[in-house]
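Hello Y.,

Per our agreement to keep a running log of every chain we model this quarter, I'm adding this entry. I've kept the format consistent with earlier entries: sequence first, then predicted structure.
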Amino acid sequence: MQIIAHRGASGEYPENTLLAFRQALAQGADAIELDVFAVEGELIVIHDPHLQRTTNGSGSIYQHSLAQLATIDAGAGEPIPLLWQVLQLVQGRCWLNIELKGADTLDPLLKLLQRAERELNYDLNSLLISSFNHKLLAAVKAARPELKTGALTASLPTDNCAFAAQLQAYSVHCDAGFIDEALVADAKARQLQLYVYTVDEADDLARLKALGVDGVFTNYPARSRKLLT
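Predicted structure for the entry above:
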């Protein structure tokens, strides 16, 4: 079962910062998950559209210029990173799950991936683009059919994973509270990867491993790995 560092090693370090991502790599995470919004055509890495929960700033990210956002402390003196900086850091050392949060993230993402291919020789096969916005995922597949996409859901659909198959997704990302044997079996039958969020406790890790899910998003990658052994 793969260990996916949720917003980096966010249980111990400020979430969605380069510090948290470096620590996730140091702790041997199989993947890193992060969230992006677009500001001035650039993808910034932050989970909320408002600043106050995770930074020393306040108000909406859209009320600030990119230059202003760069001066805000996202924890431990860390700035809000650009997705470009994360790509430079990771460089294929693990796979990367980019969750699109804003509806205007598609064009900036496509431009950035072209730049990553050109300047970093980045292997786009090591990326997974996910979102709760399934229309956005369909647009990603229409623009770049070779990209892997992950369909997020906060519910247990009556038709299990059919929605993800219709999107030609690579994976389904589900809340830990909704996972059951039927959902896992349906994902496998449709050849979909099944990743579960957010899982930090030993009993949940054991249960999900027994069910046969493919990976878990966790705030504590090293600890969760140890609990699984």
